[in-house]
Write a structure and sequence with these properties.
The chain is built from three helices and eight strands, in the order βαββββααβββ. The chain has about 160 residues and is mainly beta.
Amino acid sequence: MQCTHALEINADWAELILSGTKTVELRDWALPGAAVGRRVGLLAPTSPAGGAPGAPALAAHATLGPATPARMVGWARFGPPFRYESAAAAAADQARTRVPAGSPFLLAPPHRPPSAAPTLFWGWPVLAAGRADPPAPPPPGGRRLIRSLWVLSEE
């Protein structure tokens, strides 16, 4: 499975993307241009985050490798991200994001101070997806680019 990036994602959300049920990934940051249209590995942690929804489960890890408590369960190719005008607008897109209204994922992320500007929500359209058979450890040497997005190669 050749991927230039990996997205840390809960196994349940990854399964919804892989099954075609979730057609828009919802985040509070835009997918960087270098990852748009490319295969992005879906990296599902094998242990719970132990924190608030949206908190990276692999926060203590600076790099990826065979000992990382996560598995590459598949890949997705995302289109250009688009911004939702409000949390209400993101909640209204439940049919595509599969994030129900009132979900903690639609609240301000834990890393933002209360005085910060309102949270922006971004949709990443899923253009294609495929399973890893079998799921495998992440390749060695991946480094965190932003929040839950990892760079696997510098192509």
